[in-house]
Structure formats: C-alpha cells, structure tokens
Specification:
Distance between the termini: 86 Å
Helix content: 40-55%
CATH architecture of the largest domain: 3-Layer(aba) Sandwich
Family: Belongs to the leucine-binding protein family.
Signal peptide: 1-20
Low-confidence stretches: 3-23
Structural class: alpha/beta
Protein name: Leucine-binding protein domain-containing protein
Mean pLDDT: 92
Organism: Effusibacillus lacus
Number of strands: 15
CATH superfamily of the largest domain: Response regulator
Keywords: Signal
CATH topology of the largest domain: Rossmann fold
Oligomer: single chain
Strand order of the largest sheet: 8-7-9-10-11-14-15
Strand content: 15-25%
Length: 418
C-alpha cells in the first residue's frame, strides 16, 4: 500500500510539473526555475529563411541572458519554438501554445499576416504578444491590450523611402522631388499591400507622381508581365516590396527584359538577405534597400552589435543572413530586461513595465531607442535605415549617424555593368 501511495504521489508531482507552463515557470528539487516563452515563426514554407533568421536573433538573446545568470535573480528562460508558415497555422499554433502548453507570453514572428492572426488569438486569451519583425501598421492599430512591437511599422518604411527620395535621390537625378516618377511593385499579402498604400499616400502628399503600381502573388513563378508594365511606365524610381524568392525572380526577369531604372529601392524582405546577393551576384550592386539595421554600419551608434556578431558566428558557424536576426535580438533583449524587472511571466505586469521602459536612440545593438506608445504598444523610436549593395556588401548609407558610405546613384544601366 505504501508503495502504491508513493507511486501516486510521484505521478501527481509529474502532472503538476508538466502543468506549470500555465504560469510560465517551473522549478522542483533545487533546479533553477524556468520561465517559458512561446516563439512563433514561419520555419517552413515561402518565408522560412527570414523566419528562421529572425528566430535566431531571439534565440541568441536568450542564450546570452541565461549564460549571464538569467533573469529575476537567476531564473532560466526557455523558448518554446513552433512553426507557423501561414496565417491559419499561426492561429492554430498560438492556440496550442496557450491551451496545451499553458504559456502567457509569445514572441515572434517576422511575417505580418502571421503576426496579425496569432496576436488576435493571444488577445482573446489575455496572453501578451511581443512582435519584433512584422511591420504592417494594423497589428498595433486594433486597440489591443496585449500587443507590444519593438520594430518600426510599414508607415515608417514608407516615410523613410519618400524622405530619402526627396532629400537624396531627386538631387542626384537632377530633378525636383515633384518631377520624380515613382513605380511600385509589391507582393499582395498584408505586408506588401500595407507598405504600398503608405508609399502612395505619402508620395501624393509630397506631390510626387506615381507612374504605376503593380501587385502580384509572392508565389508567382513568372513576373514578366509586371516587369513589362513597369518598363512601359518608365519610372525614375522603382520601389519593390518583396520576399526572397519573388525579389530574385523579379530582378532576374528585369535583366532579361531590359528594364533599366535610375534608382531601385527594395523594402526589406528578400532584398536584405545574403541569399539575394548570392543568387544575383554582381547584378545586386547598386540596389538600395530600406530595412532594419544591417551590419556594415557605424558601430559607435550600435553598442552590442560586435558581441552579437561574435555570438552568431560561434553558434551557427556562419555570418548573419540579414538584419532580421539583429532586430529580434534587440527586441528580445528589451523583453528580457522587462521580465527581469517584473520577475515572472504575467502579461499585465510585463505590459505595464514595458510601457514604462525607456531607452535613448544609439544605445542598443540596432541603434534604436525604445519608447512605447501608451495606447498602441508601438515603439516610437525604431527607425528603418537606408542601405545599398556595393561590391557585394549591404552598406548603410543613411541617416548620417549610422552611415559608413555615401550612396552611388544613379544605378548603371545593364549595358554599362561589368
């Protein structure tokens, strides 16, 4: 009888330990208490490369924090990793993390469509959703209580693009800003559509001309009709909002069909990745990219960047593939500092502590400051930077505080490229 009672007590203890994810903590028998956080990213499917790169940044921040003693007096942080390749999967996985794993905090997620869907599930369940990569403005415009975003939204990307065209590109082309003809090509999900709408709105406010707007499906295997429509419109500046595969496809077909534009501006996504450069070779040179901070940047403006690069190489045995990992590293570090202050995974306490958290620009690995909008949870001090592919490297060219080189404009025509 005593033996059976002992076995029953052990079983009950095991169940209690397994269910402790409902509070995001566990700690029995002298082991370090662990705080569990859901990590929801597209790790398969069309967005897998950037989804995985983004996850790596969060993983490295947690690894570094645990190595340095954890949070709240020694608590260990554990990421519960899950794959959400599309919006439907995002809803299902968010539900699983909440109802089956008992988690009260989820971070992610790179893709706007995925973030939009998963954060809705989190909101319904009173779970905090901490976004560090998805840029669509509606994510933080719904009046949700449990959404925080550290990265800049799509409207900021469009604002930087229009400002850069006005202050730098137009003078380089010898034109007045109002004479610059802008073309837009964009994938038609929430990400591309949101950015394109803001570009159009802000360009019109500056009385710039929109020569053409060409939406397409990111899974398209032929963008020749889009290329030919742009070629016919003859824009001075072409702005593209693309993921990786469609960015490569468009640029290859632009070369095949002889589409020459004086200035080509990518909006993050695929235009940032080392895989983009590897696929296009020397043809990548000259492309402008507006995105999260990259690695050829003024290091005095990005304290902690060198440590991140070293840790990345030690962990994955390669160079970072894009700045998405850096943005997630920075955002996760902010979250861990907030958790360190709160001491536990409590959505309301973490949200309140986040709203009180402040960091000046130039004091993080991305150079971003932190000041969350009290009503929306959006960081107001995150800013996209302007980069250019020069000699196979993505170099920061604007703003001046972060830049290491001046942009080379206009781009050479295909016939002039060596």
């Amino acid at each position: 009888m005593r033996k059976w009672i002992a076995l029953l007590m052990i079983s009950l203890l095991a169940v209690t330990t397994a269910c402790s994810g409902s509070t995001g903590t566990r700690g029995e028998g002298g082991k370090k208490e662990t705080l569990q956080i859901g990590a929801l990213y597209p790790l398969s499917g069309a967005a897998a490369l950037l989804g995985d790169e983004s996850f790596r940044g969060a993983e490295l921040a947690v690894k570094l924090r645990n190595k340095n003693g954890g949070v709240a007096g020694g608590k260990h942080v554990e990421l519960v990793k899950t794959d959400a390749p599309d919006a439907n999967a995002a809803q299902a996985e968010a539900n699983r993390l909440i109802t089956q794993k008992g988690l009260h905090l989820i971070l992610g997620s790179y893709s706007s469509a995925i973030s939009f869907a998963a954060s809705e599930v989190a909101e319904r369940n009173g779970v905090l959703y901490w976004e560090m990569g998805a840029i669509s403005d509606p994510i933080t415009e719904r009046g949700y209580k449990y959404v925080i975003r550290t990265n800049p939204p799509a409207s900021e990307f469009a604002k930087v693009e229009i400002q850069y065209i006005k202050e730098v590109v137009a003078p380089k082309l010898g034109k007045s800003p109002t004479d610059v003809r802008i073309g837009i090509v964009h994938e038609d999900s929430l990400y591309g559509t949101t950015v394109a709408e803001f570009i159009t709105k802000m360009a019109k406010e500056e009385k710039m001309q929109i020569a053409t707007t060409q939406p397409y499906n990111m899974k398209s295997v032929d963008l020749s009709s889009v290329v030919l429509n742009v070629k016919q419109a003859k824009p001075d500046v072409l702005i593209a909002v693309s993921y990786l595969n469609d960015a490569i496809l468009f640029w290859r077909q632009a070369k095949e069909l002889g589409l020459d534009v004086p200035v080509f501006i990518g909006t993050g996504g695929g235009h940032t990745m080392s895989d983009f450069q590897k696929a296009l070779g020397k043809d990548v040179n000259g492309i402008i990219d507006v995105d999260f901070p990259q690695y050829e940047i003024n290091k005095s403006y990005t304290p902690g960047l060198e440590e991140f690069l070293k840790l990345y190489k030690e962990t994955y045995n390669e160079e970072p593939r894009s700045g998405h990992s850096l943005a997630n590293f920075m955002g996760t570090n902010v979250l861990l500092e907030v958790i360190d202050k709160v001491g536990t995974i409590d959505p309301d306490k973490i949200k309140q502590a986040a709203l009180e958290y402040k960091l000046e620009p130039g004091k993080s690995a991305t150079g971003w400051g932190v000041d969350f909008d009290q009503a929306k949870g959006q960081n107001k001090l995150g800013q996209p930077y302007v980069h250019q592919w020069i000699d196979g490297k993505l170099v920061t060219v604007w703003p001046k505080g972060a830049a290491v080189q001046e942009a080379q404009l206009p781009m050479p025509k295909w016939s002039e490229r060596k």
